[in-house]
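Progress report, Aim 2. The chain analyzed during this reporting quarter is listed below.
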Amino acid sequence: MSKSFDELLAHLGEYSTKKLSVAVAQDKAVLEAVKEAKERRIADSILVGDEDAIRQIGTDLGMNMDEYEIIDVKDPMEAALKAVSLVHDGTADMYMKGLIDTKSFLKSVLDKEVGLRTGSPLSHVCVFEIKGIDRLLFLTDVAFMPYPTLEDKKWIIKYTVDIAKACGVETPKVAPLAAVEVVNPKMETTVEAAELTRLNEEGEITGCIVDGPLSLDIALYKEAAEEKGALGRKVAGDADILLFPDIHAGNLVYKAIVHMADMKNGNIITGTKAPVILTSRSDNCETKVNSIALAAVVAESMKK
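Predicted structure tokens for the chain:
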């Protein structure tokens, strides 16, 4: 099991180097991550976009542009469709956003002809390495699905369990989070958390252990579980996956960790035929490289 991004990166040496397709690649921050991903043998990249701009930025970054395949497409939307088609057709293993707005990028992901849609809802998983926690944490959904229904949450768990398993977690422990750890009929989040637990126990949700509702402190820390008399809970203190009730709770926790904790992270979109990397412009190079590494691990798992 990978307990850190360094361990995750080390495991990538066991796989063949993946191919990354970048939409509208004339983006300094993205090309910086592409360069490092190549140097660390995580992924080679196909750069789709304005060739002149790509070459100029790459040269400024010290990249040997002869080592990269560049496809010259000036129009951003056309470039995105070309880039995603390379993944759709199997030429590339992963798809990454460059200098294009998120709405247009996702439109290319969902394109009926050349996109990566599966018919299932899309979601988002953030993987954190946090100082003081002895394992990777998988947070979902913190950026994509605003108010997931019970059915949506079943999909989210499936996606995230698959990613956790790709990272070496044999039987991921899932904590559907709430403000309290007991069912309160007036708090729908606790009712749904209990229902997800029941579905897991009855075999409808598989490959993991689900135990909710749980408060965040009980899910992560055995000391808190002991103080609250919850040590008997199946996931107490050992949660791998934190399932948030809605985007507000998820995003607030995500940003608190990013800005207040000693951490590393990577992000991936799920529910697609191949890994999709949608990072924020505010994400640093390390986060972008970690996201490419995460996508490479998932791509290898999907290939198997």
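The chain has two domains: 5-117+275-303, 123-260. The domain at 5-117+275-303 is CATH 3.40.50.10950 (Rossmann fold). These observations will guide the mutagenesis work planned for the next reporting period.
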